[in-house]
């Protein structure tokens, strides 16, 4: 269909020589562009062809599509993009529905270096194919013969019939149908390809259908076997769970007994520890008393030995002093005798001196002799006096020593008496201590016996404690083992419970929302297989007595003149407790 379009405005920016924004208003009627060669008149036509979808660089007189971007000059730098905007009057709403929402249709094509070009229609992105079809429906476009470029007149004159046909078709207004015909042919070829693929898919599905039918039969058989297997597994799992629960209870009882034994062992160990602590508390006091008694005895023994030694030493000193006193008395008597003798000699010599002096009056020689004798006697006298003085001094010293010795003897005797009294007192104290010691010895023996008993009791209690601890350790080990067994039993019980719950869910799912008649049937042991073989999948159907429209079992009257069972055959009905709806069916089994 030929849709008339009216171009109202052409705007260029950075396209070839139009570096600045340039707008060409196309008013109704004829619009002419006049100018010298090289002013850009042909660029306007190329811009119009380019915005309508021309993609051949040769049609733009360039080697590449980016050649339409302003390449720069001596005074102006090159641009990075070019843009052409074509405005179409659409007040009569003759444009396609996709572009028919405004009074004007604005087609914009923008190209960027190294990024390609893009189309926009009324501000929305559009495909180049959509823009080309838009202009093809209006019997125009980038290849329209109405756009006469340089040298096209001579080409039309020399054109072949096929090229002339395109011009005639455009003049007839059917050139836009070729684009849609091309699109339709592509869609038809795609549809034919899809139909071929659908046939292949149908053949493949037919093969799969047969396989699925076999699988369905196998699945039905599998469900039967799985149902029997689930029942057997349910019974087995229940049995395993029951055994595990019994083992768990036994383990719990054993654990309780072990804990009770461990508690008794701990009580015995605590009692033994208490008795040992009491014995250890009494033992230091007894040891202290024993040590104090031994120390007192040792001290008294040493004091007695010291006093005995001092008494012996004082006795020896007294004997020595008595000997010295006797010697001093003898020396004093000897000195007294010598003193008397010296006095007698002095008197005798004095008498002799007088006699000699009387006789010496005429006897000078005798006088000299007498003088010599007198001098000798005087010397002897002086010696005797000196000896007497020495003897007197010695006697005085001896007297002083005697007095000192007497005082020493008195002091010694006093000390001896005191020592004797102290020894007596010490002996009395020692005797008292000995008596006390004798009295304490039974207590000490009893204490030692008690200490030995306590030590033996402590050893026995330690042994009992060790045995109790060993028993407690064994009990703990047994308890740990029992706890592990209990945990394993609990885990197995939980696993079995989970499996039972899962089986219940499976059974509930298989039963459905209406329930199965199988749940209302009770069969004597041994006849389950016969009932399952006779009724098979019918056992899954529900009772339908209450709902006439539902599918299931209903109670029906017995069949009149029903054939009897073969000879020797036993009816199954007496072995099965089932609802009345199964009576008619069971009568024939």
Key descriptive features of the protein:
Rossmann fold; 589 residues; 7% strand; 3 domains; two-stranded antiparallel sheet; alpha+beta; 8 strands; Helix Hairpins
Please tell me about this protein's structure.
There is one protein chain. Helices cover 65% and strands 7% of the residues. It is of the alpha+beta class and 589 residues long. The chain has 3 domains: 6-143, P-loop containing nucleotide triphosphate hydrolases (Rossmann fold, 3-Layer(aba) Sandwich); 257-484, Helix Hairpins (Orthogonal Bundle); 517-587, no CATH class. The strands form 2 sheets. The protein has a 6-stranded antiparallel β-sheet with strand order 2-1-3-4-5-6. A two-stranded antiparallel ribbon has the order 7-8. Strand 1 and strand 2 (22-25) form a beta hairpin.
Topology diagram in text:
Layout: E1 6-13, E2 22-25, H1 41-51, E3 81-89, E4 104-112, E5 116-121, E6 124-126, H2 128-137, H3 152-157, H4 161-172, H5 176-359, H6 364-511, E7 522-523, H7 528-535, E8 576-577, H8 583-587
Antiparallel strand pairs: 1-2, 1-3, 3-4, 4-5, 5-6, 7-8
